Amino acid sequence: MRYRRMPIEIESPEQLGYSSIRNNLSESSYTDALFQDIEIPASLLKGLVLCYGSHMGHEGLRDLIVKGSPVLDRHDVLLTIGAAAALFIIATSLLEPGDELVVVHPNYATNLETPRAIGAAIRHIDLHFEKGFALDLQAVKEAVTVRTKYISVTYPHNPTGVCLRPEDMQQLAAIAQEHHIPLLVDETYRDMTFGPLPPVAPEYGDHVISVSSLSKTYGLPGLRMGWIICRDRRWMETFLAAKEQIHICGSPLDEEVAYHYMLQKEKHYQGIVRAIRGKFDVVKAWMQQQDDLEWVEPDGGCVCFPRIKEPEAVDVDAFYKLLLEKYGTYVGPGHWFDMPKHYMRIGFGWPAVESLREGLEGITASLRGSRRPERG
Q1: In what helix (H) or strand (E) does residue 102 lie, and over which residues does it extend?
Q2: What is the pTM assigned to this prediction?
Q3: In this structure, are residues 282 and 293 in contact, taking their beta carbons and an 8 Å threshold?
Q4: What is the pLDDT of residues 114-141, one digit of tens each?
Q5: Domains, the chain, ordered by start
């Protein structure tokens, strides 16, 4: 394994220091929840035995994660320490040095960096702004070789917020099945889809694996609660073996708190959905007034990925510096996602509405303040 630190982690707001940021538009999740918002009896926590827990994870929580699915049950769910651990477990279980995987690009950094650390070759399926960041299914099909171990996609997509139609997901699953390889779907933002809620990805077939967590939609990154859903028992046994060798089991405390949160999921969820859509409306209205930025309007998630229209007319490094130092606003620069720095991820789910508005105004002012002098 050849590890290297990822820019998105080195430059994360928690590493930079939250106190140095007034308007944090770099987060990719909903507002952080408070422990007091979770209805859990104090007596239960006091009596909780802090032992090694079930290696698969809390049975009641696993039931709730797949509640309502016509084909999934708790045996298809493996709890992990966040979705990041789930992605790590899958990559290290399925890949060897010299293997290949097909992955949508841009993407969340862990989907790319762990395979690189293993020494696997990555075949990118590039999403292009000019094509609305739409996935080219023919390109996916052509990228698969005899050395391909799995196809990896993220929908709703991070950082663009675009979604796949159900028929597209069916075709993607068919491509993977034709080549007898898994399809990995990072569906961490599934519950934030603006339209009808899509099926849980493994419902498309036994060869489809998904990962998700409570971090993004529900604002609970501090619980470190994620999961793998997989209907193939052989793969699941391998994933369990990997989990046991990495950290044996999860925290009984985290799992119990997550279980009680999920018991009240619908109550929390309705408020989250209203807040996300309200904040999205703020961003959409702001983008409609922009002369220096353009975007592909997202249809899910709580992030968008606009770009500077004329990057040659703007000192992009000066823009980011001015944005933080003068306007106290932080966004995710394009290089966090292996993209040019004139792209930026704006997270609109985390900040309060007034902070979001102030941050967006800061972006507008910083773009004007960092324009290069016109030659003439």
Answers
A1: strand 100-105
A2: 0.94
A3: no
A4: 999 999 999 999 999 999 999 999 999 9
A5: 7-33+266-369 (3.90.1150.10), 50-264 (3.40.640.10)
